[in-house]
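fyi for ur records
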Amino acid sequence: MKALFLDRDGVINVDHGYVYTESRLEFIPDTLDLIRHANQKNIPVIVITNQSGIARGYYTEHEHSLFVSLLKSRLFREDVFIQDYLYCPFMPNAPLASYSQPDSVYRKPRSGLIDYALKIYKIDPQSSVFIGDNNSDMEAARSANIGFPLLLASTNPSINDHCISSPLDAIIYL
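which gave:
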């Protein structure tokens, strides 16, 4: 079974910087259409996101959890569904010591969250798609052997990145 993996900020929603409130939630319309397409084909959609705003003390895990519920509810109103939402609150040298982990396997560019989803949902990485908006997303996808790591509208792609200008460009891989 293939899956569609998506980064959150910059792919699902506009990256306004540490988005965790409804007033700052602005969907990227083409991504909603892509998720809807995946839903119609029964392809699971899984969000893989770093949330260092928690480690920085900008918002709590509880506030993040409330935001995830809001996100899922707003997506549902748009007739789209995500199978799972996996996040890493850790970062090296975090201002909040309890979230300071220099080598968390779950923080992109490491592939721990993707690897976890591959195992839990019995996903074939080679037929799966990962859309991210920065190099750490691409590194994580390549480390997890995702067949189609796609970099969305980046101004600084590496030589190995396959860039797309719209999330809808990924439909050919689904």
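Residues 61-77 form the longest helix (17 residues). thats all i got for now
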